[in-house]
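Q: A reviewer asked whether we had any structural model of the full assembly, not just the individual parts. We don't, so I'm hoping you can provide one. Inputs are below.
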Amino acid sequence: MDGKGTVATWKDKHRRMYDQATRHPFIMSIRDGAVDYSAFKRWLGQDYIFVRQFIPFTASVIIKSCKHSDEESDMQVLLSGISSLNDEISWFKTQAQNWDVHLHSLVPLQANLNYCRYLERLMEQEVDYSVAITAFWAIEAVYQESFAQCLESSARTPMELIETCQRWGNAGFGDYCVSLQRIADRCLENASSDVLSKAEEAFICVLQHEVNFWNMSSG
Ligand SMILES: Cc1ncc(CN)c(N)n1
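A: Here is a predicted structure for the entire assembly that you could use as a starting point for your response.
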């Protein structure tokens, strides 16, 4: 390889799809101030459902890390992730109240169900740590890159959506994603060709689910 980690190589190789996930029209509509607020409210409610499923997935990655990684620092990074999810759930509840989204009566839409089902498959014991951490990194990185664009100086993001964009677009979350990428790269460096191809497939799968999730939110 040319000094780049595996993850960066895959980002380049699947650039078109990566951009579809991180520069989706829904995100760009927030960035240029033209967002349809009913789509935003749909996204908010559906993402709350997703994040509730993302918590056990994060826990499963921690368990895999305990069993299969000698690096104590992986645990530190992953624990910081799970503790911020507690905050995230409270944040969703407050936002839902502000936007008059009724969380208790929400029904998960098909793309969300499919994505949550995919997370369940990744939680299975047979799934290698390298595959799970690659998918985990990709899920977080897509949100980080997407929302960070809405905070650029040229963005015209409406004031009332800045807090949402800061949740995933802030520099601290960016550093967290870099740490996850380093863990994934280290694991993939020593992976068998079978695990490597499964991890690449997981990366592509996450991108496709993210695009479907944005499409669902846009209606
Ligand atoms: C669909 C989706 N993808 C990623 C994230 C960031 N954890 C999220 N909240 N929702």
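A: Points you may want to mention in the reply: The first helix runs from residue 6 to 13. The chain has one domain: 6-218.
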